[in-house]
Specification:
Arc Repressor Mutant, subunit A; Rossmann fold; alpha/beta; elongated; 243 residues; five-stranded parallel β-sheet; four-stranded antiparallel β-sheet
Length: 243
Amino acid sequence: MPNLSILLVDDDLKLRLALTEYLSNAGYSMSTANSIGQMQTLLLHSTPDLLVLDRYLPDGNGFDACADLRSAHLHIPIIMLTASAEDAARIQGLDSGADDYMTKPFNPRELLARINAALRRASAFSTTEVSVLSSDIHIGAFRYLSNTRTLRLDDHIVPLTREELVVFVSLLEKSGTVLSRLQIAQRLYPTGKTHNQRNIDMLISRIRQKLSVTLVDKSLIKTVRGSGYLLDLDQLQHISTSS
């Protein structure tokens, strides 16, 4: 994928140098930062096509930085790096808004494959964003703002990844109606990519978890056995985080 840029944020100089050389040879334009502060400075001047972000940095936690970037409406793919292989750390990374997660040490070829996959998914959103994310929606306490591509619950921003946002806005737009996993997948991947049913289930689970943090009952998104998922319209119209 030529002419695409990657920002690598890691305080390990050896790793930065090695990955910069490897990914540059793969055709990517590379920039690097060794701290969250340096990353933020770089992001003020330009937005990369993808961010590779370490969990532990000298001036803060990469998971928190990832969540902050999502709250600031940065919707580029983010791949987290960490030395922890525990499921809890992986889940925390995904919940913070990361699109993917890699445990150190790793094979650079695998990182390259994950970068390519994340960018392919992101490119598929060009059609999806026009068809699904182009109109404002306001139901109950939920507001989807198309100009900033953000979902708000009362005054709170719900920090969804791009995939999660497409899924939730699709359910919000069709609230009260069952959407099958295939219908959801077709909205996620309009180019005809074969969908993974488990991936849809995981996205729904992550959305439920993020909504529960803002005091929304997880049953707002209902599973209709054998059919798919729906957003409960009755609950939707009465939800407020201030209640």
